[in-house]
Amino acid sequence: MTKTMTTKKKILTGIAGALFAVVAAGYGAAAYYYSNHFYSHTEINGTDYGEMTVQEVKDKITEQLPSYQITIKERNDQEETLTGQQLQLTYQDNGEIDDLMKNQKSWGWVLHAFTGVHAELKNMVAVDEDALKQAVESLSCMQPENMQAPQDACVSATDDGYAVIPEEQGTTLEEEKVIDGIRQALVNGETVCDLDAADCYAKPQILQDNADLQAQADAINQKLSASLTMDFGTDRQEVLDKTTLKDWVVQAEDGSYAIDEAKVTEYVAGLAQKYDTVDSERSFTTTSGSTVTLTPGDYGWKIDQNSTTANLLDAINNGTQGAFEIVYLATAMSREANDIGSSYVELSLADQHFWVYVDGKQVLDSAVVTGCLNKGTQTPKGVYKVKGKTTDYTMRGTKNASGNWSYEVHCNYWIPFAAENTIGFHDLVTRSDWSSTAYINNGSHGCVNTPLDKVKELYNIVSYKFPVVVY
Fold first, then answer.
1. Alpha carbon distances (Å) from 276 to 164, 239, 272, 279
2. Of 189, 74, 69, which Cα lies nearest the Cα of 120?
3. What does the longest C-alpha to C-alpha distance in the chain come to?
4. What's the rounded Cα separation, in Å, for the pair 50 and 239?
5. Model confidence pLDDT, tens digit, residues 276-310
């Protein structure tokens, strides 16, 4: 029994030794094989060259180069490809594959049987520079008509005012950078060249985070914050705010932004054309009920355009809000469309009569004698205003060669209204003819002769700027 067991043990030991010898011999044979063949699943730059010798790898790389493709990734999700044949690529033996084999541990083949080896080698291809340049220049993305120049960030108008508009990257490529980027990708054995990542695009010079741009936008928005209301009477207002102001912004040579003074001047001129009434014809309803068109005179409103423009520009630049006062060269009693209002003196040359109204109610009337018709010294028609009033006044004509006045007339009441204060209402105690035809041959030098008691009443009613309507 003991002898049998000993025999079996010897047999099993012999079998194990034989198996070990077989395995060892097989492992050794595999190790020898992998001393000049790459491990299974050996990838070089993404291509499987497992079980190949160094020379076989080199031959396969050389064989594959014409069909090699590199994808050119462009902006706007565009892609193009270049082939090894276009680029005239050739294999460049720099010893890297030999080194890879030398560094391979043949006895460690079993450790890589399933995991494989992944190597990234560079400088295995030589690039023909002329072919590369020609291939790059043939790309669609390199054609001028397909390039959009980059745009710098800038300040521009928006619905809400002015803001910094972000830069636009565009699609303009710099040829030398494209050539360098693709060359590097080829040298690295890559199959994709991202032109954006390779920094091949021309860049805008001014970006949206530029502090000067934001300061410019803030400065002009401060001006656009102005909201100015100008009052020209009931239901006659003008409001100037950013709706209009944003179209008045101009850029100076130094790049800064400002309100265009010419636009302000034009705006004020428009206000004057719309609301000035000096030298304007007016429709007027007479005491008799007829409607006449009045000859222009010096009565009315007249905007001082220079002063108003300067003040308005200052108010805009300061971002002022609220009422804005117009500066006037001439003003009238009423700011309504009918600036004569309801208090005035009405003088009819045909009737040789005047009527005085206060707040729409007639308070005085009188026969008068106006400028002499046949002597050509008629009282001027038009709409005027009382320039002042005085008592115990002496009117004088012009001096002759002898130094004497052409006439001298004393009056108790003097109320000038026209012709630079030389024509007005006054009494003439020497006059006895107050008929409606007296003015034809025996009229005045242009003034309105008025009975003493009537002119005294008129003197007590009117004041400076009181309208005088002559027709």
1. 41, 18, 5, 8
2. 189
3. 184
4. 84
5. 999 999 999 999 999 999 999 999 999 999 999 99
